[in-house]
Amino acid sequence: MGQITLKQVTKSFGNVEVIPSLDLEIGDGEFTVFVGPSGCGKSTLLRLIAGLEDISSGQILIDGQDATSVPPAKRGLAMVFQSYALYPHMSVRKNIAFPLRMAKLHKAEQDRRVEQAAAVLNLTDYLDRRPGQLSGGQRQRVAIGRAIVREPSAFLFDEPLSNLDAALRVGMRLEISELHERLKTTMIYVTHDQVEAMTMADKIVVLRAGNIEQVGSPLELYKNPRNQFVAGFIGSPKMNFIQGEEAAKYGAHTIGIRPEHIAVSETDGTWSGIVSVSEHLGSDTFFHIHDTGLADTITVRAGGEIGFRHGDRIHMTPREDVIHKFNENGLRFT
Amino acid sequence: MATQQSRSAARIMMAPAVFLLLGWMLIPLCMTLFFSFKKYLPLRGDSMANGLEWVGFANYVRFVSSSSFWPSIQTTLIIVGGVLVITIVLGIALAILLDQPMWGQGVVRILVIAPFFVMPTVSALVWKNMFMDPVNGILAHLWKFFGAEPIQWLSQASLPSLVMIVSWQWLPFATLILLTAIQSLDSEQLEAAEMDGAPVHKRFFFIVLPHLARAITIVTLIQTIFLLAIFAEIFVTTGGAFGTKTLSYLIFQRVLESQNVGLGSAGGVYAIILANIVAIFLMRIVGKNLDA
Ligand SMILES: Nc1ncnc2c1ncn2[C@@H]1O[C@H](COP(=O)(O)OP(=O)(O)OP(=O)(O)O)[C@@H](O)[C@H]1O
Ligand SMILES: [Mg+2]
């Protein structure tokens, strides 16, 4: 079991309100991702759930039980920290066994669970090393190992991949997703990388300045963002926003169109501009287009073979059915 | 120093300092060794100019067979050991306290460090006259307030009193080193341990104490070197009476009170040997700890 409910939770540090009243429901077995820009209160929210910070008001329920004043160790949650927080003077084996040792489990049972976790995480060969003798990815796995041996009702991850290089990040992302498939345990995952959010989440919670902007599945957020902030945050490259005359044609204050929803042509289109940068990724090409009279830059995604160069004139046609319309408060309508 | 080149460059750069230090140390050392094999009683008319009589190991044998020798070794070890235990235990406690956020932290930290800046002679005098005086000392008044007979600190409990005075001097040093070590502990480690179900005392023993191991060895090493040579505190308080004669104090008495330079020098050589045994011992521990 691992159902977590936040009821009107608020948090202030001194007189700085970091989280104004917030309600959230996290279902059992769900992979929930908190995303938002830096400083929006993701870590704080996670630490409130973990019990490492006291909430200023409101209630936290875990499996229907009021956990607001339950100490962290008794909440049955395991956390993986951004810095891994491994114990440097203990071997990998002792690190992973630490929570079991604190729970006074039998030595044999401890060993069995450590071996099992090590097998799952490919750490068997490193059990007798110190954390200082491991690579970043291995340390990350030890931290996860230390979390899974406790068999918690939910895992909390605070930007666990941000210290890894890009290739390793993709690998670990898959491993964590696989782990979730296998364990079916609730996971709450904090990141500011929307790609991680899109690829891993069952449910994404978009935060801004401590407020929940929108909650939903990745595709829901992609297709139906509630407002301009979510629309800009979800999706890569970012959605193009166009204001003024062109938006007025659609009866909106601002219109948004994703780079992948614009078709390009050499000869004709609704809009036109000059290519300033073209990024060739092989499978795709991203064009950054200036002098459109619409916005500073319009980003467009096209197939890998399309070869416009710097300075070429390019014509664009947006897909009318996926144009998002926002009013002057940034809220989306239709 | 990673490369061959940087290593040899380092050697050349360090050479002048090393030679200076060697000369500085070797000349007095050689003279001590030289005198320790001679009969040299200035009051009986012995002098360098007249030529000193070679007596072989006689001084060494006499120094060790003196009835004060073994008690002085014991006193030295008790003082060093006692002060180390007190300063490290209290130092850790104080460091943990000072690490907590509190009002007036800066001032409190400076106050805690203050005793370290008081000269040994002065602090021993302050303790002797203001705290431990059996008639007018604060401690005597305290004892009387509770209706107890005041303790004659420096004669009845001379060794504990000395340990107390010296600990008071060295506690700031230990606290300071341990405080910086505690401050370098990653708070996420403590939080992880807390989530792993470790209560406060287990967090201390499993996380904080191992983190402090290196700082503790450094404090031990540095303090031992200085504590083996304490002198002013004894000179000012008991003058070596009441079983407070340490090895260095005994040597002082042999040379200056008995005016026997040869005998004192032999004692000095013993002190060098003792200090080196301790140093080798400690270097091993530190070396092991610094590698990790
Ligand atoms: N102990 C604290 N005292 C005062 N303010 C704090 C404290 N911890 C966090 N804050 C403030 O709360 C806000 C949210 O911080 P938080 O660490 O939750 O951000 P975040 O979303 O995790 O950001 P990042 O992506 O950079 O990690 C920040 O503005 C921060 O300055
Ligand atoms: Mg954070």
Automatic annotation (TrEMBL), chain A:
Gene3D superfamilies: 2.40.50.100, Nucleic acid-binding proteins (2.40.50.140), P-loop containing nucleotide triphosphate hydrolases (3.40.50.300). Residues 4-234 form the ABC transporter domain. InterPro entries: AAA+_ATPase, ABC_transporter-like_ATP-bd, ABC_transporter-like_CS, ABC_transpr_MalK-like, ABC_transpr_MalK/UgpC-like, Mo/tungstate-bd_C_term_dom, NA-bd_OB-fold, P-loop_NTPase. Keywords: ATP-binding, Nucleotide-binding, Transport. Pfam families: ABC_tran, TOBE_2. GO terms for molecular function: ATP binding. Belongs to the ABC transporter superfamily. This is Sorbitol ABC transporter ATP-binding protein /mannitol ABC transporter ATP-binding protein. It comes from Roseibium denhamense.
UniProtKB/TrEMBL annotation, chain B:
Keywords: Cell membrane, Membrane, Transmembrane, Transmembrane helix, Transport. InterPro entries: ABC_transporter_permease, MetI-like, MetI-like_sf. The keyword Ribonucleoprotein does not apply. SUPFAM superfamilies: MetI-like (SSF161098). Residues 73-282 form the ABC transmembrane type-1 domain. It is found in: Cell membrane. It is a multi-pass membrane protein. The chain crosses the membrane at residues 12-37, 77-98, 110-127, 162-182, 212-242, 262-286. Pfam families: BPD_transp_1. Gene3D superfamilies: MetI-like. PANTHER family: ABC TRANSPORTER PERMEASE PROTEIN. Belongs to the binding-protein-dependent transport system permease family. This is Sorbitol ABC transporter membrane protein /mannitol ABC transporter membrane protein. It comes from Roseibium denhamense.
